[in-house]
Each structure stands twice: as structure tokens, then as C-alpha cells.
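Thread: "does anyone have the structure for this chain?"

Original post by V.I.:
We have the sequence but no experimental structure in hand. Need at least a predicted one for the grant figures.
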Amino acid sequence: MTPERPIGADAFPIAVEPTAPDPAERAPLYAALDLGTNSCRMLIARPKGNQIHVVDSFSKTVQLGQGLEVSGRLSRAAMERTVQALRICQKKLERHTITQMRLVATEACRRASNGVEFMRQVQRETGLRLQIIKPEEEARLAVVSCAPFVSARTEQLLVVDIGGGSTELVWVDLANVQPALRGRAIMRLHEGFGQAGSESVLGARVIDWISVPLGVATLKDQFRDVDDDAARFALMSWFFEENLAGFKPYQNTPAGAGFQIIGTSGTITTVAASFLGLKRYDRTKVDGLMMTSGQIDSVIQEYLSLGPEGRRTDPRIGRDRHALIMSGAAILQAMMRVWPTDLLSVADRGLREGLLYAQMSADGVLQEEPLK
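Reply from O.Q.:
Generated one for you, C-alpha cells below.
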């Protein structure tokens, strides 16, 4: 990841042509930090062609939203955990010469009555200025992060981002976009969705988008008083579906030929890793994997058969994920029930990548070529 890196006696010195540095290594550095309901994640990267090249990263489960459903406030313990994680991020940022950065907070800070107050505390104690972004921007950035996975055959695209505190869904009509330009058209959506149903410059049309205030942590908290594992899972899945009633494609957009779902979240990558039987997570095998509705359902059924104890010790799920995997799986199952597909792309990326792509695209430092 970091750049790699004298000579003799008894001979005339030999002139050596200086090696020109790789232009990619001189490219500007950008940073993106996503403070969510469950995790704090950061990436530092530079543009490379039409992609990003990560040079440093950070990820830690902080459970900032723990107890939020009951109290409506961020707890002192959760804030202390989060500040400690942000101090590490601040030190990493200081080590690099950053051209531009965006540091954002999402659902937990949006909903908490002391969310803005906590942002001030973070700035006082770490020097980092975080911005609480609106649901629409969070949805936009989730879509942008998935642009490289848009198939040239895709005419109807659903992007699903399952977070800790909320789940964003965006339906995009790409039927009027040239196949080779579909990924780039998705990238341009960082500029805004506009009015639902209106076309972007390249012809991508956002049919509708929704931010459901239910993520893996908040949905789990809604049904924490249900003891039976299978009953709790079923209730979570149907409850989430009920919250899709205001999403236009839920009512009248059938998923036909040329339909693709791109899913981005720890839930989806964990399901993919379980499907592959990975006892040690390998991003290169998961990121971009295609799964069918049937394959996803078989993994979920296996999770249910394992029960809470079995899931806790299953190495494919991991200690950080086992407590939240079933609420995430309930959301995913609801998606598959409403829009069954043989073309779900697993994306090990999310808000951080969307922030980076948006900054780089706005600065014109990404190459204009068809996304792969």
C-alpha cells in the first residue's frame, strides 16, 4: 500500500537515470470519515485512473447509538468510546498531507437530541469538524460508491445501503443511458437527485429514494423484548417491509429483465462471506460477488438454524457482527421478497467511498472512462 523504496568503490561512478516517480504516487490525497450508528470508519486515498487507491484506513465498532431508541440521546459512555476512536483518526490525518476531506455523521447524530452538542464536543477534544448530513445526501453517496458495479446490461437499478441506524434505497432508471456510460451516469448523481423522476445530464433518472429509519441496530432494538429467535426475525422482516409503503417502486415498479440490485453493508458482505464459506474475511472474494435470491435465502435459513449461540461462535460471522446479523438479514430478506433477482451485486464499500468519489469527481481528478 505504501510507496516502496546505495554504491560502490573501486570503479568510476556510473551515471544513473533518475527514475521518474509514478504519477499516481504524486496524486493528491483525499480523506473521508463516516461516523455511523454502530461504527466509525475512515479512508485516506488518492485517485488512480477512474478508481481510488487507498493508502490508509480505520474502522472500529463504537456503538454510538446504543440506548438511543430508549432515551433519545447519545449516552456518555457511547460518546467517550467514539471520541477515543476519532482521536486515532485525527492522528492518522495528521500523518498525511490531505488535499481535501469530508468528515460526516449520520443517523444516530441526526436523531439524538444532543447530536449537535456532541459534534461540538468532538471538535473541542479532537480538532475534527464533523458535519451531520441529511438522508438524501447519505443515499446519494451510497449510490455513487456502487458505480463501478453497474452492469452495462442494467436498465433498472436498486441500490440498498443497510446502515446501523437507517437503510437507504434508491431506484434509478438507466434505460435511456448508453450501456458504456451507465456507470458514469451513476457517478454524476453525486451532484443531486433533483426532483424524483427527472433526468440527470447523462440520462439517469431517479424514480424514487427513501431513507427508512431502521438499520441493524435500531431494528434489533425495536424487537429486543421478543424472546423466540425465529419469531423475532420474522417480525423484524415484515415490520421493515411495512416501512417501504411510501417508496414508489414498492407499489408499482416490477423487477424484470435488466434489473440489478447492488447491496452495500456489513450485513450483505457477511452473508456473502458465509455463502463462500470464508472463515477469514477476504474482501477480494466478496467485493463484486454476484448472488441470487435463493443463495441469500439459504444463508439466512442456516443462520436461523444455528440459533444465537451458534451464530456467536460461527467464524464466518465474526464477533463484531453476530449480535446484529439477524436484524440485517431481516432487512435483506424483505428486499428479496419484494424484488427477487438473480443479479444482486455485493459491494464491500459504502459512504466513505461515495465521499471520496464525490470529492474527486468534483475536482476532475478521476479519468473519464467507462467504469468497469
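V.I.: this helps a lot. Residues 1-21 have pLDDT under 50 and may be disordered.
O.Q.: and The domain at 139-352 is CATH 3.30.420.150 (Nucleotidyltransferase; domain 5).
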